[in-house]
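Need residues for this backbone.
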């Protein structure tokens, strides 16, 4: 359950999946390199090590079967037809930034590993708000060997 983020600056997009208790899900894809986003919804089920996502929309019907390579409280590691992806649980804390303010530093032992470069950017290891909007980031903690995902609101 909950929201899970996968992002890759080189690929030019991130995806936020939200799994609900009633077996429905929403998927938000932001193709920030190209300046557009998409939204999908549908149902999901898990049977053993397989997650099936079914989405329906006007004129399409898609079904995805993902093999679960690993699942922890914080990371969902899946193998898909497109390859292997690790989604990180979205944390409840929201990071607030302002355009033009000094960049935000990570805590000791942490580093920013993903930002979209459109709403936020990683500059000299710090997170900088560069445009107003909402986006998502990932922070890696070396001591825990764990990555966490956060929502960021830039004003």
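Answer:
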């Amino acid at each position: 359950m909950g929201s899970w983020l996968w992002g890759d600056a080189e690929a030019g997009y991130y995806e936020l999946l939200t799994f609900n208790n009633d077996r429905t899900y929403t998927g938000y894809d932001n193709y920030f390199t190209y300046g557009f986003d998409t939204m999908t919804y549908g149902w999901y089920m898990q049977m053993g090590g397989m997650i099936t996502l079914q989405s329906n929309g006007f004129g399409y019907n898609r079904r995805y079967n993902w093999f679960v390579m690993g699942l922890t409280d914080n990371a969902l590691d899946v193998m898909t037809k497109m390859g292997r992806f690790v989604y990180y649980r979205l944390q409840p804390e929201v990071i607030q930034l302002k355009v033009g303010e000094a960049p935000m530093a990570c805590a000791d032992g942490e580093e920013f590993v993903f930002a979209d470069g459109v709403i936020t950017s990683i500059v000299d290891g710090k997170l900088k708000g560069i445009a107003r909007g909402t986006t998502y980031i990932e922070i890696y903690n070396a001591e825990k060997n764990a990555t966490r995902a956060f929502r960021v609101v830039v004003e």
